């Protein structure tokens, strides 16, 4: 778990690091452009450029409209925080505060109380209750009260305890629907609250400013892109020059992501359209149905799935980070040259930076500073295991918590077996990779020092994806292992 | 253990961090207030090494004082952490 991959360069030096030809020019390092974007006419041009990018993104089905809100926030001066809060609130309201209403409606029918519950009213009440609860917790933390001394642990225990309660027979009917309504309203914000509670203890900021970055308007999943308020403050442009550089970095990233998104579409058309290669899921399903594709096709679908996943992650995270940069927050990229990773730990960091940060912040460091303090290597390994296996598993279990409502707790837990295996192998491998890592660059030449390690790392994650790929609740660990054995030629 | 004077702490930390940056090929200048972790110049493995070094050299138990990476995010922040009364061993 490392962060070494991304270059730290913010100032407009006028000196290009690599004078060679680049697909996307380093506009953020051109002093003339940086100066121009600080002027009114330059800002108009920047807005036009961003508008053009948004149209091009729209043409290929990607929503980059938040960039308009980002520019408004960037130029709002001292009203920036208010505007961020309003923009975030607007988008959350538009998306129904991210509550899975289909699940809740189905649950109400299953519980036989659909005609007795006014779903929109319950949803509105739950949103009000949840945000009131967040506000109280943040305010108490900000006032120095010891609320949830260990926020992450406290939140996870409380959330999972309520999930267990939903399974009790005495909650059947309306209480179960209300409890699930609360949980499904709370769930999208759980990790934001975890960051918020940590921040509130050290940031003397009003509660609404913390809430303004709970699922900020530039985008997020359950993983906060930009963590919490204190992290964002560190990356916020303080001067007009910093803002100009940050915004030009945002434009540069957006342009790069646009090219990748077009490349992804072409790649999909080539392999699935022209070459008629089946999707990974179809390949697995056909094998399980007793009609396996040739091994070569199987391997090709695994590799294509891996490449497609990397491109999807880069595009999806890139749009979010580019929007945040346009708003004046110079966030690090989410996916950064993952195929250049020479160690397993490095890949994990380069693949999904903010998710890795979440696991490091909430599982790795708390474990590291508390457990096995007298045993250097064991301490390191155990903390890595806590993050990559336990944290990873918990995160996904909570992300897919609707399975508990649909399948029951036991079946939902059993359905995690393949993903649990994936996280276990990942954690052990990354842990060993961390322990073996030597900081000095090894003088072993390009082939042995760079190419072979990179191929090994990519190959490892490509194969292990078989256990992490979609359909992971529907097929057992053994079925996936059988598919892998077939690909390896162990079975027929 | 006596409290180390600020210049000495800063000097030792600057030397330690500069060495780690050089090992990573980062030869950019380093000032006392430059961000180390949130800027991406150092990573979590470096943080781990730094924590163990501070624990050994200054007897600080991070689980007692509440771990917060931002308190290690610059040479100045580390110097302040090492010398704060609550961080000193009994």
From TrEMBL, chain A:
Record keyword NADP present: no
Membrane in keyword set: yes
Domain of life where this protein originates: Bacteria
Keywords, ordered alphabetically: Membrane, Transmembrane, Transmembrane helix
TM region(s), chain numbering: 40-61, 82-99, 119-140, 152-172, 178-198, 253-277, 297-324, 380-398, 418-435, 447-467
Protein's UniProt name: Acyltransferase
Species of the source: Bradyrhizobium manausense
From TrEMBL, chain B:
Alphabetized InterPro entries for the sequence: ACP-like_sf, PP-bd_ACP
Gene3D superfamilies documented for this protein: ACP-like
Pfam families for the chain: PP-binding
Domain called Carrier: residue spans: 4-86
Name of the protein: Acyl carrier protein
